[in-house]
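Hey, can you fold this one?
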Amino acid sequence: AQEMVKTFNGPDPFREELEALYRLHAAKRSDYTADSGDILANYRFSASMMGVPIERGMFGRMCEKVFRLKSLFEKGTAPKVSDETAADTLRDIAIIAILMRIEMLSGEAK
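Sure. Predicted structure:
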């Protein structure tokens, strides 16, 4: 069976989303990492506080975001925190996934 692929005239929405993810991460990075230069400083700190490997801490954070998304979908109403939409939560999940991949690849190099 041939797969239908939707094409877009104009800007590539996937690329636009990736660029939006980068801008969001760059903006939040300063607050979460105390400008340390370590893009995973907050995850390293929280993982050490919990006594778990960083990947587990990051996965826990991702699961929290997935649970929030599940809750929003089940309720079917607007979120109480108006500036944290389901779309925002999906971006958070995507950023955490990318950061987890970076951490996992850096661990393979050691």
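The two ends are 44 Å apart (CA to CA). Let me know if you want another pass with a different chain boundary.
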